[in-house]
């Protein structure tokens, strides 16, 4: 079945630093979604990507849909303490199949 | 609040009991999904509905699990004869499919603990 490899598994960074995380897939996706999840809560959508090569920003967050359609990355610039959480990538290969999630990147920000 | 809502937020039950969770999707969304998430993992797909029709079920969805969306609006997920391995966060998501674009929005989840 489809698998998403998300890396790194965890990151400890200083406040103000930039962060980069990525996902790679064994198959082609038509949609990449990035979510953030806080403890005890559901995932919150950060950025949605629909086209290969697409680069989309949401405030300090920037995500790109890889041109091979098998990868995506998320960058966070100038990290702040509230960026702490688990970031998940998720891919969709057509409108009729379920989202496949990575295992998440746990981000810790040291003030 | 016009987001996805789930009730209850937490449920503690004894092994062997039945439990039922409810999900209210975003009102204009035609698709509704159920996922299960265990510690340290991403959400895993269980089943989904297009309007009131249940279109796909994962192999994770054993015979003890049943989901309904009778009027194409809210959905319920029932687990019969709960087992300790059913302890997890159960997430609901809804989406509005436009052509090939689909974005799923999640509810806050129901955390189940089976003792």
Average of per-residue pLDDT values of chain A: 93
Individual helix count of chain A: 0
Shape of chain B: globular
Our Rg estimate of chain B from Cα atoms comes to 14 Å
Report the sheet with the most strands of chain A, covering strand number, pairing sense and barrel closure. 6 strands, mixed
**Biggest interface, chains and residue tallies:** A-B, 27 and 28 residues
Put simply, the count of helices of chain B is 0
The averaged pLDDT of chain B comes out at 93
Radius of gyration of chain A, CA atoms, in whole angstroms: 13 Å
Q: What is the helix content of chain A?
A: under 10%
Order of helices and strands of chain B: EEEEEEEEEEE
| Unreliably modeled segments of chain B | none
DSSP summary, beta strand count of chain A: 11
| Backbone structural class of chain A | mainly beta
Strand content of chain A: over 45%
Q: Tell me the quaternary state.
A: heterodimer
Described by strand count, sense and barrel closure, the largest sheet of chain B is:
7 strands, mixed
* Count of extended strands of chain B: 11
Q: Could you state the order of secondary-structure elements of chain A as H and E?
A: EEEEEEEEEEE
Q: In percent, how much strand structure appears in the residues of chain B?
A: over 45%
